[in-house]
Amino acid sequence: MRCSSNRIAGMANLIQKSVSESANSLFVKIHICADYDEMSEEAARSVAEAIRAKPKLVLCVPSGNTPRGMYQELIRMRRQNQLDFSKVKFFLLDEYIGLRPGHPQSFRADLWRVFLNYINVRPANVYLPDESYEETTRRSGGIDLLISGIGVNGHIAFNEPGSALESRTRIVELEDSTIELMKTSFSPPELPRKAITMGLATILEARRILLLASGSRKAQILARALTGEITTDVPASALRLHSNLTVIADEEAAAIYRRNSVDKPESIG
């Protein structure tokens, strides 16, 4: 079963540290799926279509729980010889700072454990964020497709609330709310307080962005990001400034958006 799709249109505020008016128009494609499995399948289809259209795709990927189902579906496609990853370049959105080499909770280790080990990726085509990340992405031709989740406080990658629109790849201090959610995964001495992340400006330079959201805990922040003021207080809201943003959410994550959306979406499917 395919997800239902909507488009919302409106006017955006272009922000930096404060909000100022702009004549830029929004155009966001929203796919609302019945559940997590359908959301994952829809996301995997989008990625597969992009790879088939451009085998040398430059793909920016997240770690975490939300994309795991998408990765499982992409693995299934690979096993059925439906998808070739051999020429795809993978860029990680972010990574913790200060973990010991090979730490199992690092984003690098997690991505290899749940996804990369099961596809025909070339290790030389997997890139981790560092001080030269901006130049590395430029040399690769720029990001074709960037996939991100959304944090309960609106962060994307590790761009926490207050991150500047012009921010680039950098080391950041993690918010207390983010650290609190990490406590189940780390012992107290190992708990990261810093991370390196692609910045909002770097993310917005991607040719296409795919935002994934699942579960009722993301419902309030997703609604704010999609229909509220575009503000650095909700970093994910800045994605609405992009000309090619697709949101894929399950029913639980989209519930408040459906109920509170001011703009009545025009059905496209």
Q: Any chance you could write out the topology, listing elements then pairs?
A:
Elements: E1 4-15, E2 19-33, H1 36-53, E3 58-61, H2 68-79, E4 89-92, E5 94-97, H3 107-114, E6 126-127, H4 133-139, E7 145-148, E8 170-173, H5 176-182, E9 194-197, H6 200-204, E10 208-213, H7 219-227, E11 245-250, H8 251-260, E12 266-267
Parallel strand pairs: 2-11, 3-4, 3-7, 4-6, 7-10, 10-11
Antiparallel strand pairs: 1-2, 1-12, 5-9, 8-9
Helix pairs in contact: 1-2, 7-8
Q: Please report the distance between the alpha carbons of the first and last residues.
A: 12 Å
* Elements, N to C (H/E): EEHEHEEHEHEEHEHEHEHE
Low-confidence stretches: 8-25, 264-269
Radius of gyration (CA) equals 18 Å
User: How many DSSP-defined strands?
Assistant: 12
Please describe what this structure looks like.
- This protein is α/β, with parallel strands linked by helices.
- The chain has a single domain (28-260), classed as Rossmann fold (3-Layer(aba) Sandwich).
- The protein has helices spanning 36-53, 68-79, 107-114, 133-139, 176-182, 200-204, 219-227, 251-260, and strands at 4-15, 19-33, 58-61, 89-92, 94-97, 126-127, 145-148, 170-173, 194-197, 208-213, 245-250, 266-267.
- The strands form 2 sheets. Strands 6-4-3-7-10-11-2-1-12 form a 9-stranded mixed β-sheet.
- It starts with a strand and ends with a strand.
- Residues 8-25 and 264-269 have low confidence and may be disordered.
